[in-house]
Predict the structure.
Amino acid sequence: MNEEKIKSFLADVKPIVEENERLRKEKEQKGDFFNIFSILKAETDEVKTHSAFLAELLNPKGTHGQGALFLDNFLKIIAPNEDLITENAEVDVEFSIGAVSKDYKSGGRLDILIRLPESNYIILIENKIDAGDQPCQLLRYNKYAKETKCKYKLLYLTKDGHNPSKTSTRKSSEEPFWKCISYSQDIKNWLKICLENIANASPVVETIRQYIGLIDKITNQTMEIKMSEQLTELMIKNFDETLAVLENGNNFDIEVYEKFKTQMSELKCEKESKTNIFTDYGKQWINFIPDNCPKDCTIVFGREKNSCIFLSIKKTNIKSYQQQLTCFDHAHEKNYPYGWKNFKYQDWNSETKRAILNGELKAYVKECIEKIINDPNFPK
């Protein structure tokens, strides 16, 4: 591959990226990024934010005052060939179908359940933002749907519309009994269609616009449409150069991750021991051990299975919950007796990589650790 051609291609890309950044800063100055969901730190809360918000819109009796507008348009997307009646529809969040059995064959909680009694039809929605699949989860929900004797549709809602794991379905080659839908396309398009039929003065409109902004953020759709189209056109014209850059993406990721590890190992915080402890467990964990806490206490920055990235404290030989740290926004749990806090950077995406390369992520981690160490409830 001609190096000069690649340099020329990247030189053509640069003004597009710079223009996108200019527009982003312009929006920032106008307050377009003001988002109540982000301010309340509710961006990735599946139950209290996303399921609750979607269910409220889908409920014809919801406080939005739009009747079955949202539900009717939703059904056109997920069941376009079915003539469903939304009169007397009922919508529940976290609907219990019993305790999960020891063999994982029954029980659980449905994130959203929509009942259409006039059509003898139910819609079950499993909502996934960051959480991983539970054993036989969709299999259990499918079993419940069959037992209702209703016609049904089981939806698996994720940020990008990917398929559930075999852990959840226990299926390999059989015809899927679920339908995948995404926030990035299906939910976003559905909300935009609904906005066209609501008066602009309605507070519902502004709330939905902010929610769409949240979807863009959690699904990494922050580039302006015009900029994206220009970049795509340029990439097509420079096909070989584009492929060369893309094929080197893995090497780029490795280098960025190595830089991240170096930053973390070099991180020095007030009151931290002279020998910083850094442990890498398959890109999942980093442990910091301050000098002013018990030897069996560790500040943990990591990822629990497929769940969100978090900061917490682990302490061995402790059998009871402790007083939650004031800087943590989640209560104590079995493995984290002092509570835990969501990490600002939740995905290995362009925002996170940029923050690593410009040093913002390192500064953020240092700030978080200092707050933990200086918290009045930090273990002595």
